[in-house]
Amino acid sequence: MIWIRTQTKEELIECNEFMLCYTITYDEFFFRGHDLIIGKYSTKAKALKVLDMIQEAIENNVIFQMPLDSEVKEDD
Prior knowledge:
Elements: E1 2-5, E2 12-15, E3 19-23, E4 28-33, E5 36-41, H1 44-60, E6 64-65
Parallel strand pairs: 1-6
Antiparallel strand pairs: 1-2, 3-4, 4-5
């Protein structure tokens, strides 16, 4: 379980599980939690990087703020 503040900063939700999804229509990757979109990313690499960040937040037992797409650097 982790508390996550959405990318829009408008909701703070307790997540027991969430999923990474892809939409062809908007060509973007997004995380869903409790039927909310909690963050959107332009590439799969960025989305996976955010998933790594969420895992680290879980390990450290802290609230996680979903970063904006522009704040996530893809691994080289």
